[in-house]
Write a structure and sequence with these properties.
By secondary structure, this protein is an alpha+beta fold. It is 34% helix and 23% strand. A hairpin with a 2-residue loop joins strand 8 (231-236) and strand 9.
Length: 335
Amino acid sequence: MAKALIDLLPLQRVVIARVLSEAGVSRWMQIATLDARGGGMVADPLRVDFDSLPLVDDDKNRLQCVRSHQRFEAALAGDAGPRITYIPMFEGNRSDEEGVVEIHSPKALEDSELQTIELVLHVFRNMYHLLAYSDRDGLTGLLNRKSLDDTFYSAVLEELDEGAGPDSVIMEAKVQPGQERRHRVPPNYWLGTVSVDHFGAIGEKSGHLIAEEVLLLVARILNNTFRTYDRIYRLGGEQFAVLMHCPEEALVLAAFERFRANMEKFNFPQVGHLSACGGFTRITADDSPSTALERAERAVDFGQQSGGNRVFSFAELVRKGVLGGDTNFGDVSLF
């Protein structure tokens, strides 16, 4: 979108910014910046240092744009000088889709130029929602397994044309027959899974519709527990997954423990109190989505076999000798 606007109109810069939230704090993240002279950047929300981002209130113009859902201009040096035109990235009032497109121009935009911008935005919004729909679970609206695979092989990974850096792990790029692709993975990426304890009994006792309502509420608890830039998936049935970037295993454990506690205290209508188990693993250089999911699921299975309502790190279970470190797909159903 930014490239199309730069190519079509005499603009100086296009900036695309989104609102990210964590623990009740909202900040601005510049997703993309493109200058007419060729400079620019694209950021990945999974890799962002959230605390380094500016607070939402620090940019009043952006805030006014997303709150009012209206376009407006800010003059930088009088009526004849440069302008920044702020346009809502999305239409409607969904809080998870708050963003703004900043159009930097040498003078006020003409009506024909504004019409061109609105046309490009209209095409972008349609494409965005079409792609988002194909990546979403039909029941909960969470991301689906296809999206997990796509993210694992792209957004989570370092661009192959950049240096790996001292802390990165190189993954084999060639694909052998019968093998999944291998890529370069930055350190400190984690994949966890969550399963509702005794979910089968809910459907047997209360019926299919009540079981679906439980899944919808579990999805809401997940969204309210994890950060807005963590990726949350429904893999099928009562199984969910979370893909996140975090510097320490203890912080990942704390996040999943918060979810476990939020599940435990929630009163599900017509069902009462339920619990869930979580398990997580660090993404390694040899991983595919299936191998990482398998390790996380083994930790979940151990939690459920230990009475439920537990969260475990796969690596910690291996360190304690409770689980072996080898992958065995035959023992675990991923879906």
